[in-house]
Write a structure and sequence with these properties.
By secondary structure, the protein is α/β, with parallel strands linked by helices. A hairpin with a 6-residue loop joins strand 4 and strand 5. 45% of the residues are buried.
């Protein structure tokens, strides 16, 4: 799900290269996108629909071994629920292709994309010292109120255990260039561009000292690949969990899941932060402002200090000139979430993935120049 997106496209590309013999399907919204996907990946089957296509989601999930959801989770609980319901019904194993239906058959695997925005602080533009750790702080993470961003959906996913093997991957900002044919640049590229254009300069909340984690999309795709490897190993063992981190554990796996790093890879506590570096917002602006200035998007390389309210109004304007008298956007709107992101700290430590041998290899900060050149080139076409 989300296989043509920035993250999903990277995951799909990784899986078709590393597992060429495993049948893959991708949920696609339009015939045009399906055609472009098939031209790049002839072996990938396109399923027409989206996260509102509840019948399609449940039926396709019922016939699947593993479902990977890289699409936005907020407001899509019904679709995610349909996926989980389908996986509870059983499906064909990766090794035999034979369908095992019902609660007595094999357990399906669901990998869910959440987000570390659950743990950001107030958007004041100042550096915060709190760092959330997905091992040391797991009880606090699980106890977070469902009113926090992503948490209600995360709880829905956890509730599918033990009928479904579930895991949640929670990235902060996702940067870098993706092999996705539809969305090669990060999703926030457009709002960073339009907000700077409206202000006529770079921008930051207050001093711009707030720090957020970032992960390169290709590094994040490898984190998903690690979980997929484990799931495929389990399915090929006839239900015994195989460890992507240990060949010995694979050979010795029995009916109970292996814990190669001392914790379960699947289940209600299978929550994985994925962060490769920390970047202050003013440093992010320092990377993109010269590119925008060089392309004539902004007339100045200055970085303007603004308030959260000013940033929200500018996001709402959609890139037109900033209007100080414009009405405030609704407090739960997407533009307010974006403006909040400009000023918050979102600091996380991916202890679980690191324990499984995952290591980030790429910098997102160094990739912004190429990302904006691709994005601005697309605007001229």
């Amino acid at each position: 799900i989300g296989g043509t997106g920035h993250l999903g496209g990277a995951v799909l590309d990784l899986l078709q290269r590393e597992h060429p013999d495993v049948p893959l399907k991708a949920l696609i919204r339009s015939d045009d996108k399906a055609s472009r996907l098939k031209s790049r990946y002839p072996k990938v089957a396109a399923v027409m629909g989206d996260l509102d296509s509840l019948t399609v989601l449940e039926e396709e999930s019922r016939s699947a071994d593993i479902v990977i959801n890289c699409a936005p989770d907020i407001t899509h609980d019904s679709g995610i629920g349909a996926v989980l319901s389908g996986l509870e019904g059983g499906g064909p194993t990766a090794s035999t292709g034979q369908r095992e239906q019902g609660q007595g058959g094999r357990k399906g695997f669901y990998i869910h994309t959440s987000g570390a925005a659950t743990f950001y602080d107030e958007p004041g533009g100042v550096r915060g010292e709190r760092v959330y750790d997905d091992m040391a702080d797991m009880d606090e993470i699980l106890g977070t109120a469902p009113t926090k961003t992503h948490m209600a959906t995360d709880d829905l996913v956890r509730s599918a255990h033990p009928a479904v093997n579930v895991a949640i991957v929670s990235p902060p900002g996702i940067g870098g260039i993706s092999p996705s044919a539809e969305h090669p640049v990060p999703l926030v590229t457009s709002v960073l561009h339009s907000t700077a254009r409206a202000f006529g300069s770079g921008f930051q909340i207050a001093r711009g000292e707030n720090v957020s984690g970032w992960v390169h999309v290709l590094d994040l795709a490898r984190a998903f690949g690690l979980l997929v490897d484990d799931a495929l190993g389990a399915l090929r063992q006839g239900g015994a969990a195989a460890s992507a981190a240990s060949a010995a554990a694979t050979a010795a796996a029995a009916a109970a899941p292996a814990d190669p790093a001392g914790f379960p890879l699947w289940g209600p506590r299978a929550y994985y932060f994925a962060s490769g570096e920390e970047v202050a917002f003013r440093d992010l602006q320092g990377a993109i402002v010269p590119v925008l200035y060089g392309h004539g998007v902004i007339p100045s390389q200055a970085v303007r200090s603004v308030t959260h309210t000013e940033a929200a109004r500018t996001c709402l304007a959609g890139g037109t000139d900033y209007d100080p008298d414009a009405p405030l956007p609704p407090p739960d709107s997407w533009v307010v979430h974006l403006a909040t992101w400009f000023g918050v700290n979102m600091r996380i430590r991916p202890s679980r993935l690191l324990a499984l041998g995952w290591k980030p290899e790429r910098s997102t900060l160094e990739a912004w120049k190429e990302a904006f050149e691709i994005y601005l080139g697309g605007l001229k076409e």
